[in-house]
Amino acid sequence: MYDISTRKRALALVAQGRSLNSVSRETGISRAAIHSWRHRLEPLPRMAPSDPGPPADDSAYSYLLGLYLGDGCISAHPRGGYHLRIACADAWPGLIQQCREAIVKVRPAVSVYALQKQGCVMVTSYSRHWPLLFPQHGPGKKHQRPIVLEPWQQAIVDAHPWEFIRGLIHSDGCRLTNWTTRTVAGVRKRYEYPRYFFTNVSDDIRRLYTDTLDKLGVEWAQCTRNGNPLNISVARKASVALLDAHVGPKH
User: What are the C-alpha distances in Å from 67 to residues 10, 26, 95, 123, 172?
Assistant: First the structure.
């Protein structure tokens, strides 16, 4: 999209008797564009993107919403429209595939491709409608602005809470094995136990995670590291079993 001053400069060269081809070579503007400006100088107004309607698959959307809040972003394309990008570590090819499948289920008409970066893949899709489907998009980093679900988003999360939790853990969480020692009958023994962690610097996103865990009956605890309460731990046996049944380790 060229501004008015650029259009006027190109037309001024044409008015000097220059050919369209020579002006195109000098300015880098296509001959067809310059020709069209001779008939209409003002750019046509851009049409606002139409409402795309609800996601095609609510369950996939709940999962994709979790991925987006954790490791996703939306960026404007210079020629209009938007790119949705979800960062997925190379270590988890199954996660990369699930992310691609979720995007296609949410919007079957879009294309999805992967951009290889150092240590990760950016699962990417172009659409005019991504900001309408993810209204949490905005300037700046997520933890520097409020993150609140729209009523229609909250209704989807309430209907598909485990998918939302799985998306959040797949983006900013992990399942690991902790260990401790106990003395039994005078003998020091080592015990291992599984544990889930979720880490995010946004207070709002952590609250969305813990509020959903509360509704599912999952017990959690806040862990503070270096004075920052950024980690949510699930370590109790029954709660870990619930997460194992519905989330499981990344793969």
Answer: 46, 46, 10, 11, 8
Among 24, 123, 130, smallest CA distance to 76 is for 130
Listed range (37-51, 120-134, 151-165, 222-236) with the worst mean pLDDT: 37-51
By the 8 A CB rule, do 199 and 230 touch? yes
Q: How far apart are CA 161 and CA 156, in angstroms?
A: 8
Spacing of C-alpha 103 from chain mean position: 10
Nearest to 164 by CA among 121, 198, 114, 127: 198
- pLDDT band of residue 78 (cuts 50, 70, 90) is confident
- Whether the Cβ atoms of residue 236 and residue 209 lie closer than 8 Å to each other: no
Fold of 58-147: Endonuclease I-creI (3.10.28)
- Name the β-bridge partners of 181: 190
**Three-state DSSP class for 38?**
coil
The answer for residues whose C-beta is within 8 angstroms of residue 236's C-beta and 6 or more apart is 219
- What does CATH list as the number for 172-246? 3.10.28.10
Q: Where are the domains of the chain?
A: 4-37, 58-147, 172-246
Contact 121, 114 (CB under 8 A): yes
Q: How large is the C-alpha radius of gyration of the chain?
A: 25
| Three-class DSSP category at 222 | strand
For residues 46 and 80, the model is more confident at 80
Q: How far is CA 157 from CA 26, 135, 140, 180, in A?
A: 55, 15, 25, 36
Asked if the domains at 58-147 and 172-246 fall in one CATH topology, the answer is yes
